[in-house]
Amino acid sequence: MTNMPEIVLAETWQQDRDELLRAEKEATRALDAIAARPGGSRCSSSPDKYVFRVASRPKTLLDLFERTGKLVVLPVHGQRTRRLLPGLHTNSPATSPSLAELANTGVSWATVSNMPLAQIEPYKQRMGWTMPFVSSHGTTFADDLRSQVAVSY
User: Fold this and answer.
1) pTM for the complete prediction?
2) CA distances from 150 to 12, 73, 75, 93, 110 (A)
3) Band of pLDDT at residue 147, cut at 50, 70 and 90
4) Is the pLDDT of residue 90 over 50?
5) pLDDT value of residue 14
6) Cα–chain-centroid distance for residue 150?
7) Dihedral class, residue 135 (left if φ above 0, else alpha if ψ from -120 to 50, else beta)
8) What pLDDT score does 1 carry?
């Protein structure tokens, strides 16, 4: 026998529904207030502390934002193995329109590896990737980023 919901009068159902809606709105307002707090929108270090290697020219952390308000960083480690980790193929937006969609909402993307650029570029070309991919080799970025997923400026 399955658990059937309790059968109630229409007025009782409407009261319960209204109470649930009020609670949902209250929870949404509380989450909005938390999201509006400045803790997640501050840099924890100087934005020019890191110099990333890119095929075109070196870039600072601020450069990676590309004039948007938010930056999503996918950290990819592989320096010890001299090759990129296999999970990158499924975790990156390299073959989808999602990078353009992100940019349209004011979000930039950077795939950051602690491998030297000379190791990243041939692999990136072989895979046909056009996503932003930079090297943090020689910086403390990978260590400093451990507790960060997304940064706002």
Assistant:
1) 0.58
2) 45, 6, 11, 16, 10
3) very low
4) no
5) 96
6) 5
7) beta
8) 58
* Alpha-carbon distances of 106 from 14, 35, 57, 58, 103, rounded to whole Å: 40, 17, 23, 23, 5
Q: What is the mean pLDDT of residues 96-113?
A: 81
Instruction: Look up tokens 């001299």; give the residue.
Output: 82
How many other β-carbons are positioned within 10 Å of the β-carbon of residue 112? 24
- List the helix and strand counts (H, then E) for the chain: 6, 6
pLDDT value at residue 95 = 43
Edge-to-edge strands of the sheet including 150-152? 133-135, 107-113, 70-76, 150-152
* Count of CB atoms situated within 10 Å of the CB of 107: 18
Beta carbons within 8 Å of 86's beta carbon, 6+ residues apart: none
